[in-house]
Design goal:
Elements: E1 4-5, E2 19-21, E3 26-29, E4 43-45, E5 50-51, E6 69-71, E7 78-80, E8 93-95, E9 100-103, E10 117-119, E11 124-127, E12 141-143, E13 148-149
Parallel strand pairs: 1-3, 2-4, 3-5, 4-6, 6-8, 7-9, 8-10, 9-11, 10-12, 11-13
Length: about 160
Amino acid sequence: MGLVGSIPPEIGNLSFLISLDVTNNSFGGPIPPSIFNLSFLEVLNLGDNNFSSRLPFDICKYNLHRLKKLRISFNKLYGEIPSSLEHCSQLRYLSLRSNNLNGLVPTQMGNLTLLQELYFGGNNLVGNIPKEIGALTNLQILDLNVNKLNGTFPATIFSIASL
């Protein structure tokens, strides 16, 4: 829609919001923390904007327990991927691709057992792919391209029949 500016923190007042999709606009600045308090949210799509902030370290710890789709791709996020994403246990789709995220792929990602699609490509992630990813038995797509990962693929990944 060509929207520009920032998303006001009052977005958090929409307490019964189930889906928020502002894809492909020109929103910038930090993502309002109040978005991560919307406990009825099932879909959060902030992709293809200019958001520049860290993800909250406790992103799913207190709310977002109903979230099934989280897409914050093609922005300017930085910092590490929060391990607290494991508390979004209903996630089926998780995309943080094409940002400036760094650090390790959290081992806790292996706890998202309903996950079908995982996109972490196009960041600055380092280290090994954790063997815990092999616990994602519903995984159909795993995108880790264009990072600084090293080592070998854990053998556990090769037992995911749906991948």
